[in-house]
């Protein structure tokens, strides 16, 4: 399960931000996960709940925003959010598309507790 290594890196990033901002605790972590990121949200949540117990994130709530696929069509210039895992332009049926959103996993927001 690569979710454990992802959570380890996420917690390290949270700890770094907390240190830079002189926070003693992290109350909330908001991440955005693309549907094609290769990350399984439920496994990630379980890993976060397990790994957060020993550090500054121990009281943190994890909020996950799921990013659907967004494509740009080079033929008709349409930018479309897709409900299915399909890279065909729904406007002109072209295969000449580029995925612009939906593969990423990003730390979007931290709620820090400072003195």
Question: How would you summarize the topology of this molecule?
Answer:
Layout: H1 3-20, E1 23-34, H2 41-51, E2 61-67, E3 69-73, E4 79-82, E5 97-101, E6 105-114
Parallel strand pairs: 1-2
Antiparallel strand pairs: 1-6, 3-4, 3-5
Helix pairs in contact: 1-2
Provide an overview of this structure.
With 115 residues, the protein is α+β, with helices and mostly antiparallel strands. Helices cover 25% and strands 37% of the residues. It contains two helices and six strands; from the N terminus they run H-E-H-E-E-E-E-E. It has helices at residues 3-20, 41-51; strands spanning 23-34, 61-67, 69-73, 79-82, 97-101, 105-114. The strands form two sheets. A three-stranded mixed sheet has the order 2-1-6. Strand 3 (69-73) and strand 4 (79-82) form a beta hairpin. The chain is elongated. The model has no long low-confidence stretch (mean pLDDT 93).
Question: Quick summary of this structure?
Answer:
The protein has 115 residues and is α+β, with helices and mostly antiparallel strands.
Keywords:
single chain; 115 residues; alpha+beta; 3-stranded mixed sheet; 3-stranded antiparallel sheet; elongated
**How is the biggest beta sheet arranged?**
3 strands, mixed
Shape: elongated
Query: What's the number of helices?
Result: 2
Q: Which consecutive residue ranges, at least 5 long each, have pLDDT under 50?
A: none
Backbone structural class:
alpha+beta
In order across it, which strands form the biggest sheet?
Answer: 2-1-6
What is the radius of gyration computed over CA atoms, rounded to a whole number of angstroms?
18 Å
Mean pLDDT: 93
Say how many strands there are: 6
How far apart lie the N and C ends? 37 Å
Percent helix range: 25-40%
Question: What is the string of SSEs from the N terminus onward?
Answer: HEHEEEEE
Strand content: 35-45%
């Amino acid at each position: 399960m690569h979710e454990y290594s992802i959570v380890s890196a996420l917690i390290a990033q949270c700890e770094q931000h907390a240190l830079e901002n002189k926070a003693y605790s992290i109350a909330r972590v908001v991440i955005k996960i693309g549907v094609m990121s290769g990350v399984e949200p439920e496994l990630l949540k379980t890993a976060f709940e397990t790994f957060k117990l020993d550090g500054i994130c121990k009281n943190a709530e994890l909020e996950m925003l799921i990013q659907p696929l967004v494509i740009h069509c080079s033929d008709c210039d349409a930018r479309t959010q897709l409900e299915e895992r399909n890279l065909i332009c729904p406007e002109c049926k072209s295969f000449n598309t580029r995925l612009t959103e939906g593969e990423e996993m990003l730390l979007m927001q931290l709620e820090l507790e400072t003195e």
